[in-house]
Write a structure and sequence with these properties.
Order of helices and strands: HHEEHHHHHHHH
Helix content: 55-70%
Structural class: mainly alpha
Largest sheet: 2 strands, antiparallel
Strand content: under 5%
Oligomer: single chain
Distance between the termini: 62 Å
Length: 216
Amino acid sequence: MRIGELSRVTGVPVPTIKYYLREGLLPPGELSSPNQASYDEPHVRRLRLIRALVDLGQVPIAQVKNIVEGLDSKTLPLHEQIGRAHYAITRPRQLSTSSEEPSYAAAEAQVTDLIARRGWTIHAEAPALTTLTETIAALRSLGQDNLVGHLDAYADAVEAFAELEISAVTSPAPDGAARTPDAVAESVVIGTILGETLIASLRLLAQESLSAQGWR
């Protein structure tokens, strides 16, 4: 397809596509003449991934470039390729808890213990480590130790969610073909961002139902 059709299929304006081409985010099309290039399904998939990162993940273009370079790498394992996209959209939240507070050190130790006991394989620079530590410290400082005491129950629940999600994004496509790194990365980005909203919504509905049944 020509660039105009690529724009219609993906909903990305032609000037934006040309910008992505100049920045190296999108691989060049196959030249059919000195001034004409042809694009195909991998270009459609790459554009969808870029838009998911930029629009849903609010990921800066420079970081998007780092992610797609990883996806195009012939040496990085798929786990690390996808990890770049995952880390880019799971930036630590800025909570009020300072790492200098005593509660932070206690929370950090609790997180380390949790990961060790559950046998999870987590990179030391995983953004979610900081978020979890700060959240536990904030809960303790607000007197919500009862919630922190149920950390393993939370971990059991989210581990089940994670298994379902990983299975969904790595399973073969409906036609039986293996999913490309771009397709897996797009699913990870969309699933992580919208999956959080999905889980949070269901949790609120479940809380409302349990409250109605038990607090009448």
